[in-house]
Amino acid sequence: MTGVFAASLISLALSFSAAAADQWAYVWQQVWTNDVRVALRDTAPLVDGFMLLTADAQFDDGAADIQRPAIDWTLLADLGRPVVAVVRVNLGFAAVIDAHPSEAVDWIRARYIEARDAATVGGARLAGFQIDYDCPSERLAAYATLLEALAPLRDVTTLSITSLPDWLGRDDFTQMLAAVDTFILQVHGLDRPADIDASVSICDPPRARTWIAEADTLNTPFRVALPTYGYRLFFDRDGAFVGLGAEGTATALAGTTARDLHADPAEIGTLAAEVRRNPPRHCEGLAWFRMPVDGDTLNWSDTVWSTILRGDAVFHAVTPDLHWPDAALLEVYIENSGTTQPGACLLPLTLAMPGVAAYDTHNGFRLENTAAPNRIVLHGPSPPPGMRRLAAWFRFDESAAPAARAGQPEFKP
């Protein structure tokens, strides 16, 4: 659906009662820079706790390559928020569970002990331990057996797991839930886009509401994981999808066109408000994936992040700015003075086309011709709130009376 948002206000009735569901933030950075520490201090007053990546393991042929972020446990102790340690394992962990189930149990238990001891040295205390493993649905029975063997952990901490919507309704998942204290329902992800113009989203609120309602029937405490992040999608010259990049890995691919896809703050904020204001019986709250940090290019800005956490109104205000550095050079900027980032921006331009001698596009924008004479459309990602980005420039033949006019921008999700 395409809508026009010049400065349209999307108002969210986000006044929460004292009994509102809580909200936690995932801290997923591999390197704890000063920006991460600043973000933690700024976020702490707005959330009820943090879920920290403490070990990230890539299993290959039974061996694990483990990345352990250098966590500032002393800072976390000073912030005074509960902390859940999270260990992430890739799909290669399935082979370990199948071939050496007792070793898999020992490996998970060792990651908990590492996190507990590190937290204790830093003066912090773990409020729980979480396993992030996107187990293939056909292997859930083996995963359930692993969780049952980890039962002694529940005597000393709260054990939780992340889960996929595809697991809902499966008997093996019910068996898994009997072995944990709570679970995180991930309602975000990305389906492969059919082409560069396909309508895709990181979180589809109607589907998410269905999954949340289904999760509530399982009679197990859970939280809903909502996205703040984005992807950079790459397409070939024919518009076919060829790959994607996430934060820190979104390196341009040669010969491709990039399209940035962001979690829509207005849609996600509305969904979050619904859950927090009127949580399902077994829903304890939200788990935001993930805490934004200054310098992120594919995540929400600090403004959007804090606005939604506080439950304030969310609005779009994206406008074009035509700048003439000299009489023959036009620079087209897109500026966002709102608090959220709409979808792809389509900006119609009327130019003295016979007089255009050269042009170039920037920041993910591309030029599309139209049937109307002298009219083109710039198509690209809207800038994050508070940012102004160059979309394109045009060099005119000075003898051709340079002229340009911008129309009303439109947006696609």
Task: Report on this structure.
This protein is α/β, with parallel strands linked by helices. It folds into two domains: 17-310, TIM Barrel, CATH 3.20.20; 318-412, Sandwich (Immunoglobulin-like). The chain is built from nine helices and 24 strands. The chain has an eight-stranded parallel beta barrel. Strands 1, 18, 20, 21, 23 and 24 form a six-stranded antiparallel sheet that branches. Strands 16-17-22-19 form a four-stranded antiparallel sheet, with no helix packed on it. A hairpin with a 5-residue loop joins strand 20 (366-369) and strand 21. Helix 3 (93-99) packs across helix 4 and helix 5 packs parallel to helix 6 (171-177). Residues 1-18 have low confidence and may be disordered.
Number of helices: 9
Q: What is the distance, rounded to the nearest whole angstrom, between the alpha carbons of the first and last residues?
A: 7 Å
Total domain modules = 2
Q: Detail the poorly predicted runs.
A: 1-18
Q: What is the strand content?
A: 25-35%
C-alpha Rg, in Å? 24 Å
| Class of secondary structure makeup | alpha/beta
* Envelope shape: elongated
| pLDDT averaged over residues | 90
Main sheet record: 8 strands, parallel, barrel
CATH class of the largest domain: Alpha Beta
Question: How are the strands ordered across the major sheet?
Answer: 3-4-6-7-8-9-10-14
How many β-strand runs?
Answer: 24
Under the CATH scheme, the architecture of the largest domain is Alpha-Beta Barrel
Q: What name does the CATH topology of the largest domain carry?
A: TIM Barrel
**Residues in helices, as a percent range:** 10-25%
